[in-house]
Amino acid sequence: MPLVTFSSPDYKDKTVYAVAGSHTETILKLAKEYKVPLHHDCQDGECGNCLVRVTSVDRKGRMSGFLTDKERGVLVELGKLTKDDIDRIAVDDMPSEWRLACQMIVRDEDILVEY
Ligand code: FES
User: Fold this and answer.
1) What are residue 26's DSSP bridge partners?
2) CA distance 113 to 92
3) How far apart are CA 77 and CA 91, in angstroms?
4) Which residue, 17, 19, 40, 63, shows the most beta carbons closer than 10 Å to its own?
5) ipTM strictly over 0.95?
6) SS (H, E, C) 17-62
7) How far is the CA of 13 from the centre of ligand 1 (A)?
8) Mutate to test the pocket of ligand 1, among 46, 68, 69, 104 (most ligand atoms within 8 A of CB)
9) d(CA 57, CA 68)
10) Number of compact structural domains in the chain
């Protein structure tokens, strides 16, 4: 099971086990389940309140992850991704370190989620 560590300057870090492979559990859903006070509003990839920075905690690097059109648009609007970043992510199948917690599905990797 992957380990997901939630980290914020305002709270003590919290590491939880996630059920990977279900392809339904988002970072936000996991945060709510474990009472991590991650900001959110629409829960539908539109408001950007659930912006998080996601990095790998091991040396393997992150798995790539699909960004929806909605998520891409919000990340550009927030200044976290440029058009060049989007092209590079698509061409090189790279993960974005900035994600929306309500859109990112937990995968089989150990990650640090900064919120
Ligand atoms: Fe609105 Fe995630 S809660 S974009």
Assistant:
1) 105
2) 23
3) 21
4) 40
5) yes
6) ECCCCCCCCEHHHHHHHCCCCCCCCCCCCCCCCCEEEEEECCCCCC
7) 22
8) 46
9) 24
10) 1
Q: Report pLDDT digits (tens) over 2-37.
A: 899 999 999 999 988 887 655 678 999 999 999 999
Strand order of the β-sheet with 111-114 is 11-17, 3-8, 111-114, 51-56, 98-100
The CATH number of the domain holding residue 105 is 3.10.20.30
Question: Does ligand 1 lie within 6 Å of residue 43's CB atom?
Answer: yes
β partners of residue 11: 8
28 alpha carbon to ligand 1 midpoint, in Å?
A: 9
Query: Is 46 near ligand 1, meaning CB less than 6 Å away?
Result: yes
Pocket flag, ligand 1, residue 45 (CB < 6 Å): yes
